[in-house]
Inverse folding.
């Protein structure tokens, strides 16, 4: 049916040109059609007038996207310093960046992004002193840089490498195989993979995949009935052997893992983003059926490796901050577990094996500490890191004598370090040298008090020597969910803020994993409001301590962090000048209806439950927008190929916000085309455009004209 209610494009364009004169001018937003849809949840009737925007492939929705994006682009185009910010950001990015090295037999594979390349390129060299050559260049797979590549797993004989290709930012992956020594791409192509990898055994590997979705529903339909198959190198995908499926539980993740010696196959079951059950099969003794190793789904379990017939595992079962245990798969009763590394006051963030040793990384107030142990739990020494910051990636094969790890911090550019197991020393393998004097900036960590008296840590990054006089434009950012830890990281984009006497503030709010499972549980499910309170308290602290003022305070977050921004800006619209929620979960009553949203119910609860509906309804950003309230200047950011947090969340949120906004603060939506969930897999050119618009919108609505200071 033709949508006669939508304003035609040419009328909307006229409105933009006539209304977007300055940030003090009230905007006349495009009119969005309202329907009469409503739902009843346990006796509560909830209107959903913009339900039609959930149909992302309809002509109506596409026309709406075109209209809103045109309106936003015309607003942004009138910001006088937009091009200045863009040019400065390009200058800051125009250097070689290195990360992600690992050893494969005689070869070393690492990632390099030269200057302004859209996608990072994978290189291979023979030994530490060998000549680096291109292994895979994703930039040659598309004209616009919208195709990304992620390396997956190497076969245990070091002959083959699997890798994934993602198009347009979608979570859907196509898997390919390459022969490492010759860099020859094999003919194999495996489709309809999502959040899966290869677990090599013999002449092939186990992997997870979904059934092909109905045409037109690829980016929105529920992803259900994941299955595990075995693929033999050289075969067609239709020849792959079904190894595991569970028709009784369609909304469950099933991922395979195989030990380095190919003795054990594990199937890790998970109902979502938290909790696991593991079953296993011995591949060497003719065992046909899977046996239970760890019963789910109250705790998390991960197999590190096996030592002979015993298994090393990483778990929070009996240890909220995690521990390493040894388990006999033939007698996996919990009473028989042997504790290898007991729980400590700091969170055990990761564990891996390398060269017959066990390496564990802890978080100390959100910064990495890494240690080397024998596999029996005997402590050997700490792995010296270059500074206080974030390290990742250490691990490898039992035969390796050295390995690599990445390290960076807020003011420490990312680099790759080679670690020697015998000496315990690290040397630089590849170093990134940014186009800014990072010695001009500094990081401090403060602790503030949240609403319920809990002490919350927060990193503050800024130019050295700034005064607490309330003059500083400040960006407050957090994630706070799914047990994910927010640790120090280097950002070229944030240098634009630092150069303009600004402050980047990152509190480690509850819901994250910085202090273990207690911290995570303190901010999820029925306790989700604690994380919002922590974030609000961070804003109040920054103002009280005169780092900034309300008129120079912006908030930002993506995905679960987008939900955070949406929730706090509707709860405390008076506290912030600018809000930039990115790819946020804005409709807390319907997130479980799309793609893999069902997997977040273990974190949020579900509106299908009488227990959780009232809590979700109380903070759901979409449902807490009030009439005649002046909300902060808001730039909602999403993308048309986001099939993780579908763009309908942002579409419905901005439509409701534009309908109800009072005052002159602009409320706009920026919709990226041919991109997915945030910056994941995005081309650098799109990242430049996106970051340019964020900083331009923020500074413009704060009344600040930035320059290179």
């Amino acid at each position: 049916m033709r949508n006669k209610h939508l304003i035609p494009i040419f009328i909307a364009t006229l409105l933009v040109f006539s209304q977007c004169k300055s940030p003090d001018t009230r905007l006349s937003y495009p009119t969005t059609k309202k329907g009469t849809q409503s739902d009843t949840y346990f006796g509560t009737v909830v209107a959903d007038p913009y339900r039609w925007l959930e149909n992302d492939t309809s002509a109506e929705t596409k026309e709406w996207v075109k209209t809103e994006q045109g309106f936003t682009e015309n607003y942004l185009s009138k910001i006088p310093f937009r091009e200045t910010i863009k040019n400065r950001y390009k200058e800051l990015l125009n250097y070689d960046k290195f990360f992600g090295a690992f050893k494969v037999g005689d070869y070393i594979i690492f990632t390099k992004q030269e200057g302004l390349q859209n996608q990072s390129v994978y290189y291979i060299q023979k030994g530490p002193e060998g000549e680096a050559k291109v292994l895979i260049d994703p930039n040659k797979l598309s004209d616009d840089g919208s195709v990304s590549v992620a390396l997956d797993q190497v076969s245990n004989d070091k002959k083959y490498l699997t890798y994934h290709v993602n198009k347009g930012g979608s979570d859907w992956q196509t898997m390919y195989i390459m022969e490492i020594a010759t860099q020859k791409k094999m003919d194999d192509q495996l489709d309809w993979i999502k959040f899966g990898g290869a677990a090599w055994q013999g002449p092939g590997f186990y992997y997870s995949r979904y059934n092909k979705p109905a045409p037109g529903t690829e980016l929105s339909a529920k992803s259900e009935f994941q299955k595990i198959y075995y693929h033999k190198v050289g075969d067609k995908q239709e020849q792959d052997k079904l190894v595991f499926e569970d028709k009784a539980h369609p909304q469950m993740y099933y991922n395979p893992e195989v030990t380095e010696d190919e003795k054990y196959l594990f199937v890790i079951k998970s109902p979502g983003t938290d909790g696991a059950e593991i079953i296993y099969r011995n591949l060497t003794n003719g065992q046909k059926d899977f046996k239970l190793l760890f019963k789910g789904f109250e705790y998390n379990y991960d197999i590190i490796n096996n030592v002979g017939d015993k298994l090393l595992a990483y778990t929070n079962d009996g240890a909220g901050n995690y521990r390493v245990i040894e388990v006999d798969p033939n007698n996996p009763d919990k009473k028989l577990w042997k504790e290898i590394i007991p729980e400590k006051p700091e969170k055990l963030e990761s564990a891996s094996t390398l060269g017959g040793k066990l390496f564990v990384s802890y978080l100390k107030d959100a910064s990495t500490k890494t240690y080397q142990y024998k596999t029996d739990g005997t402590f050997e020494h700490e792995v010296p890191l270059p500074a206080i910051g974030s390290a990742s990636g250490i691990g490898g094969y039992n035969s390796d004598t050295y390995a690599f790890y990445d390290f960076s911090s807020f003011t420490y550019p990312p680099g790759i370090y080679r670690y020697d197991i015998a000496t315990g020393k690290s040397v630089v393998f590849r170093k990134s040298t940014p186009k800014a004097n990072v010695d001009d900036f500094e990081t401090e960590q403060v602790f503030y008090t949240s609403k319920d008296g809990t002490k919350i840590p927060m990193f503050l990054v800024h130019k050295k020597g700034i005064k607490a006089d309330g003059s500083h434009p400040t960006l407050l950012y957090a994630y706070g969910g799914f047990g994910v830890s927010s640790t120090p990281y280097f950002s070229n984009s944030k240098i634009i803020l630092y150069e303009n006497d600004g402050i980047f503030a990152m509190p480690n709010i509850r819901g994250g994993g910085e202090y273990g499972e207690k911290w995570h549980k303190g901010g999820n499910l029925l306790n989700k409001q604690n994380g919002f309170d922590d974030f609000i308290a961070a804003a109040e602290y920054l103002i009280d301590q005169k780092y900034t003022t309300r008129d120079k305070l912006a908030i930002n977050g993506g995905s679960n962090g987008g939900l955070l921004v949406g929730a706090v800006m509707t709860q405390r619209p008076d506290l912030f000048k600018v809000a930039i929620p990115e790819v946020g979960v804005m409709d807390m009553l319907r997130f479980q209806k799309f793609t893999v949203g069902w997997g977040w119910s273990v974190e949020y609860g579900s509106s299908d439950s009488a227990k959780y509906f009232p809590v979700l309804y109380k903070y759901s950003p979409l449902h807490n927008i009030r009439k005649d309230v002046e909300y902060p200047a808001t730039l909602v950011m999403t993308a048309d190929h986001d099939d993780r947090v579908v763009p309908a969340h942002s579409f419905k949120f901005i439509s409701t916000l534009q309908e109800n906004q009072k005052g002159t603060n602009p409320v706009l939506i920026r919709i990226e085309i041919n991109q997915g969930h945030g910056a994941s897999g995005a081309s650098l050119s799109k990242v430049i455009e996106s970051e340019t618009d964020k900083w331009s919108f923020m500074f413009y609505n704060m009344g600040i004209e930035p320059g290179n200071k």
About this structure: The two ends are 55 Å apart (CA to CA).
